[in-house]
Amino acid sequence: MTQEPAHTIHVDGEWRAAEGGATFPVTDPATGEVIGRASDGDRADTAAAIAAAERALPAWSGATAYERAAVLARADALMRERRRDLAALMTREQGKPLKAAMNEVAYAADFLAWFAEEAKRVGGVTIPSARADQRFVTMRQAVGVVAAITPWNYPISMLTRKLAPAVAAGCTSVLKPAEQTPLCAVATVQLLVDAGLPAGVVNLVTTSRPAEVGDELLDSPVVRKLTFTGSTAVGKVLVARAGATLKRVSVELGGHAPFIVFGDADPVRAAKGAALVKFLNTGQACISPNRIYVHRSLYDTFVATLEQRIAALRVGRGDQEGISIGPLIDERAVAKMAAQVDDARTRGARVVAGGERLQVEGLGGTTFFSPTLLADVTPDMLVSREETFGPIAAVTPFDDEDEVVARANDTEYGLAAYVYTNDLSTAIRVTEKLRFGMVGVNDINPTSAAAPFGGVKASGLGREGGYEGIDEYLDTKLVGIAT
Ligand code: NAD
């Protein structure tokens, strides 16, 4: 990286300090150590970034699709070259195990590669007219200046999932990353610069004051599009505020995924799958299975297998060999885990494994929580009602398909769902009835840069990745031509 750590604001191709000179600390959640400082941007910095994006828009939206694609293709190659360094930074700043960080960087690069190709496929259509002397054609054009607001849990891939289609479509952007992970954003923007992205096309405002920067982005009539990934609570506030200037919006919000194991499934395979996806990123994933429903005939085998898998998980600092569970992001997250476990225990759940805060020997981090298995969970428990976002697997037996589908749908959220069955009819019938944006059938990872990611209901609006991903950054213009 070429810039000082406290020059983490990127405007018009220049790395700079916040106009007010303020900085904020960035910590390693595993050790509690301060690993760097970021510039604490405010409204003035944000206004400067918006102005830079506005100035860069005519040239970038006027560049050929092939020029835009070439930048993204170079960025993809650079990200794969820098994979190890980016992953190491991510592990320090966010806490996830190095192997998971390596996987995330590859996933992040996939969006650069995918949208490098999609840039070249933005075309319109011709439409027959009812009049003999008229022709219709459509053009698809860049929406304009984009505000991108991203979370800490996937601190690089959530950036490329937004910036790559924006760049491909010819938009210019102002990125505001999460205050917990500004350094990953700095490294990502530097990579785009090194790939040849012209000044002003992607601007970055790091800040510890998200509402202040967010308000400037949302109130600006220059910003034509909001793309946000984060909690449902914040997403609702931002969408409402974006309404005042009628911005395009796409928001990827919280989830509360059901994981249903039918009586004909292999309970051992299903439990292994549940263990893998549940504890990924220490449970801090929007598609994490929060409510595991297992047919009563398989229940004991499933719970016993999951218990064994959990016993094999090692908690610690993500850069150490064999670690699969890192720290949670902060104290608030640990308090939420403790509250969900206490509530479940009081209401009659069995704590089969874990359930406690952990202090890992030799590490100063205070946000470790043991991987937890709760059995006999009921719908009234907090863990059934609110997004967990941590390492708690909550398991409930069921008897009947209609009952389990009703329970699975009994949530305001609608992001991911999982179904385990060997019966094709059950798979199709149940998938059709689940009110979720993504369903994994005997599959714990229904995600790819090539596939549309997104939710329904309180899980969001719009899709990222896939053929749909670039549409969010394009407006359709109709041209009627009299002949
Ligand atoms: P969060 O909503 O607290 O923060 C997300 C982003 O919003 C951060 O950059 C934060 O600084 C910013 N922010 C907060 N208040 C703001 C305001 N008033 N104005 C402007 N920006 C503001 O969420 P989080 O805790 O960082 O992330 C976890 C949440 O994200 C979970 O609910 C998770 O399910 C969700 N998530 C969803 C997806 C998805 O694709 N659906 C992916 C990852 C995470």
From TrEMBL:
CDD domains: ALDH_F5_SSADH_GabD. Coiled coil: none annotated. Keywords: Oxidoreductase. One of its GO terms (biological process) is gamma-aminobutyric acid catabolic process. Residues 15-479 form the Aldehyde dehydrogenase domain. InterPro entries: Ald_DH/histidinol_DH, Ald_DH_C, Ald_DH_N, Aldehyde_DH_dom, Aldehyde_DH_Superfamily. It comes from the Bacteria. Belongs to the aldehyde dehydrogenase family. This is Succinate-semialdehyde dehydrogenase / glutarate-semialdehyde dehydrogenase.
